[in-house]
Amino acid sequence: MLQYILKRVLIFIPTLIAITLLGFIISVNAPGNPEERMVTASQNDGSTGSQSLSQIVEKKRWRTKLGLDLPVFYFSLTSVSRPDTLYKIDDRNEKEAIDRLISIYGNWDDIQKYYKSLNKFYSSQLLFVPDTNVLKQHNKNAVLETMNQLKFEASAIKGTYDKTVIEVKMNKIITLLSSYPFLEKFKPEFEKVRQDFLSIEKNASVWKNYIPRIAFYGFKNQYHRWLFGDGGKFSKGLLLHGDFGTSYVTRQPISDVIYSKIGWSLFFSMLSVLLAYLVSIPIGVRAAAKRGSRFDKSSSIILFMLYSMPSFWLATLLLMTFANTDALAWLPASGVKPALGYPDGASFWEMVKISFPYIILPAICYTYSSFAFLSRTMRVAMLDVVNQDYIRTARAKGLPENKVIWKHGLRNALLPIITVFANVFPAAIGGSVIIESIFTIPGMGSEAIYAIQTNNYPMIIAILTITGFLTLVGYLISDILYAIVDPRISYK
Amino acid sequence: MEEQKINIGKAVGKSESNNDFNFKKFAWRQFKQNKPAYYSYKFLVFLIIIAVLSPIIATDQPLYCKYKGVSMFPAFSFSNSCEIKNEDGSIEKIQYDIAEWKQLDATTIIFAPVAYAPNKTDYNNADYVSPGGKQIFIDKEGNEKPMPTKFRHWLGTGKGGEDVLSGLINGTRISLSIGIISMLIASFLGIILGAMAGYFGDKKLQTSRGSFWTVVIGVVFAFYYGFSVRSYNITDAFAVSGFAVLLQLIISLVIFTFILFLFYLLGKQVGKISFLSKRVFIPVDSIVSRLIEILISMPLLILIISISAIAKEKSMINLMVIIGLTTWTGIARLTRAEFLRISNLEYIQAAKSMGLKEFHIMFRHALPNALAPALVAIAFGVASAILIESALSFLGVGVPPSTVTWGSLLNAGHEQFSAWWLVVFPGLAIFLTVTIYNLMGEGLRDALDPRLKK
Predict the structure, then answer these.
(1) H or E, element range at A169
(2) Domain edges within chain A
(3) DSSP assignment letter at B147
(4) Fewer Cβ atoms within 10 A, N terminus or C terminus of chain A?
(5) Which residue of B has its CA nearest to A209?
(6) What would the CATH number be for the domain defined by A254-485?
(7) Residue from the list B297, B391, B427 with its beta carbon closest to the beta carbon of A472
(8) What does the pLDDT look like over B147-182, one tens digit per residue?
(9) What pTM value is reported for the model?
(10) Which carries the bigger pLDDT value, residue B121 or residue B165?
(11) How far apart are CA A73 and CA A66, in angstroms?
């Protein structure tokens, strides 16, 4: 038995790694720009389209803090034409533009030259402040507008890979540079950018894209940092300290967010399993014991309909009927407590009493589907048992029917529904996404949806990983429970 | 027990007709006797007809129109406009999708049974008009009149005056195609992987060390040329259309398979070198079982939503592919179990002893007998795919916002409870479709199990 458990735990490890990897792949490819989110909009100083220097510095700080300046994984499958250092480019759009340029032309040396001179030009535009004499000579607003346009066009070129678009934008910059005499001095610099771009096409070596290469990055990568931390500077690492990283939305640690949200989800999933067992075992057993009776037939039909009923439809129907001022306004429509919170100094029981009406409808929706599933499973399992010899023996020796069914039959029929219990904890983490968002329950399900809508990917990886881990543990526990309940099963 | 099952099946066949017993016919007879399942099947056929015909059943473009002496068939036409010469020589252009057909001064005009498009607004009847409520129609002269019967919104309207019945009819097409296409993908994956896992197990698929490692390296190369090199082709296709994505994916898959095949041939030669010719086992079963374990231990809905969030452009094709790629586990598990049983039967041993190739035995001799449980899983799978799609449209994540589906109609009803018709009818449609698939799944399970013969 112990050996079996150990073996299972060992098999867990690759599965868990694969789960975290899958989460990681999703998050790396996800849209959105985390460091941009972290640098709040309030710092925008009004210069349109371009970024102020302070913002760039602030973004850089967040990149290091979140570990986004590292390569993604230990190695990557890339081509001969691509450099190992592409990940160092800060801006996502620029990175993609460069990568696409490489995939079109395949000559990194020229692209690098072009990118460097373009960057030089861009930063010279950022740093350039026309002196006061010049501003006196010309219309001040018009000059500033031209400067802003220059910055905008230059940064737009940095994020573009389409040849025609780049050429159009370059021509525009040339005209902008010609509009004031004091801008003429940038012309040679920009002419170099242009020449560099032309030489990319001239020296194109597309064939390099078709030779694969594996680039190794060592332990300094995002995934390794996520697992083991960076020595406690910004991240402690998941494996040793359970640190899932920082939420992109609230900047809180992910584990704090989960801790504050899991309560209600755990409550509802425990409650629903408890209720489902309480109702479904008697129904399933009775239906099986009196097979073909009216009770069996009607309960079968009702259970089947419940089983096919979409939870969001049932939830909406219930809300429409019982929490609707036009119909019956018996129950509140959303939340788990009054909008103003509990009154001060409310005792636990008072809190339960206040929350009770809020809980009824979500609890029904949480329960009914597993209840239908459980009853049907219970009935089938019980039917199997009732036809066995030892039940006939029990009847033959004159035991009352109730005792035969409930004492001798039930115990052996319980086996299949043990599995369901293993799903309680993973279900709490994954939350019931639909029900929680319909009833606006502040649990893990609504948090998951919110995380997806706001591209809060550290949260999503955390949810996927924890659920995966708990499901695996749940399977192990149910296997062990099987062996305890049924002595015939042995794991050797 | 399982052995017994086969024997009973054969025995029954012999007693009924002495020469040849046709299991398909037998199962179909059994299925027909199961009234709920049989009626579900008939209802499904009806739904499929509606889905196929939906572009001409529920559209605001007339089926036939004669205007100023010119005959038009807008609902059937592929072009979107028609030019009509007036008497004074000027040209009047009618754009089929934006023309005000109902106000058109046409000689004859035949409308579709439901004369509204699903996502077009009818401003005269905006703001949730109930099915039985007062509906307004503006006629050619601009007078306000009560709605004529042929233009009535039979199931009411939504916030902007969208016709609910038209939305339901067009939603049928989306729901059914989501269910069917995603299950096609899922069953392709599930049956192949499950069959290989069950048939070969961990200790049956043998190959030489050399060819094993050649193929492993080949997978890297095939992935590189199939997907890495073409990654921008695929991402750019998302901006075009769902079909472009599908096309690019298929091209990638073809390249992938071709290169893998080349490496397979190469591996055969490499395997002849003395050091590399040592036989090794490929643990197919372990690999597939781990894959299944990974997928089933993740919360399905969250996984699907977060994968579909990656795609910049939302499209139904994406969703079908994603659902297909994440829901094959059930089919694979059942197929695996069935193959595990079949691979130990005598007729497979006989085929092997005759020197047939493994893959030939697997797909020609074992697969037809293992399809039954997979079929049941597919029927249930379609039901759950439809549920997933409508749940996503209900939540408004991962689906294109402009598409009208059952889930999105229900979501509109969730915002306005007084519009009960927006809650009841779409919900009923989802419920009925899911139920008939579930009933058919149950019917199939019973019909394909000879032990339950009536």
Answers:
(1) helix A163-178
(2) 75-216, 254-485
(3) P
(4) C
(5) B229
(6) 1.10.3720.10
(7) B297
(8) 887 788 888 888 888 888 999 999 999 999 999 999
(9) 0.84
(10) B165
(11) 15
